[in-house]
Amino acid sequence: MDDLVLLILCSPSGAGKTTLTRHLLDNLKDFTFSVSHTTRRPRAGEQDGREYHFVDRVRFQTLIAEGEFAEWAEVHGNLYGTSVREIERARAEGKRGIVFDVDYQGARQIKAKLRDAIGVFVLPPSMDELRRRLEGRGTEDAAAVERRFANAWHEIEHYGFFDYLVVNDDLDRAKAAVLGIALAERHRRWRLAPTAELLLKAR
Ligand SMILES: Nc1ncnc2c1ncn2[C@@H]1O[C@H](COP(=O)(O)OP(=O)(O)OP(=O)(O)O)[C@@H](O)[C@H]1O
Ligand SMILES: Nc1nc2c(ncn2[C@@H]2O[C@H](COP(=O)(O)O)[C@@H](O)[C@H]2O)c(=O)[nH]1
Asked: For 60-109, how does the pLDDT look when each residue is reduced to its tens digit (9 = 90+)?
């Protein structure tokens, strides 16, 4: 049993997992974000080491060869990977939870390695709304939006693999749902059993 809550957030691009992750991390200070590596170019406002570790393909391939990744995948034409060091960092910092913002391929690999990981799949309320959000974000050109939108069907096909589904329609409700899931997982009996046992020892 893993003391650390391993929370995977997955969704088609633009459904809102970054927005929901930020809210979760603002509210649960003992959770941390797993900063992935990517070959994607930084968006305006993104900082190396905060949103991602931005690397080129050669460096990424070297990291794969060196066994640095707990999982990695090609998503929308770029490489993305979760470093094992991120999980080690969370443990070393005494965090109680870590959030992985990964695609379904990454989710599958994390679950295969870390059996206690919990998967949350975020659904858009409709495909029209998903397209509006992707276009409205303004971070990708038209071709990249099309590519991400086309991949959305394939992502959604994998919803059955996840433990929880959250429909991100009303943002406040979706935020509360994701926070609620993280809190519930943090309060699993086996995670808090040592506290109960300590109390019993004082009898
Ligand atoms: N419930 C919501 N209602 C309306 N707009 C929303 C809602 N949730 C998120 N958005 C907006 O939709 C856009 C996409 O959200 P976000 O970047 O969080 O998606 P994402 O799933 O992380 O995408 P990607 O996988 O591409 O990183 C953003 O502009 C965000 O502000
Ligand atoms: N398998 C992994 N997927 C990842 C990782 N980090 C992010 N992602 C996923 O990529 C897409 C696109 O992200 P964007 O920031 O370019 O919009 C999205 O589905 C992310 O969840 C990772 O380490 N591994």
From this structure: 999 999 999 999 999 999 999 999 999 999 999 999 999 999 999 999 99
16 annotated as a binding-site residue: yes
Residue 191 domain-assigned? Answer: no
Whether this model's pTM surpasses 0.90? yes
Q: Does 196 map to a domain?
A: no
Pocket of ligand 2 (CB under 6 A): 13, 36, 40, 71, 73, 75-76, 80-82, 101-103, 105-106
CA distance 169 to 194: 39
In 3-state terms, what secondary structure has residue 43? coil
What is the number of residues in the chain? Answer: 203
Residue 111 marked in a binding site:
no
ipTM, two decimals, is 0.98
* Residue 171 CA, closest ligand 1 atom number: 1
195 lies in a domain?
Answer: no
Angle 155-61-143 from CA coordinates, rounded to 5°: 45
**Mutation to probe ligand 2, out of 79, 99, 103, 148 (largest number of atoms < 8 A from CB):** 103
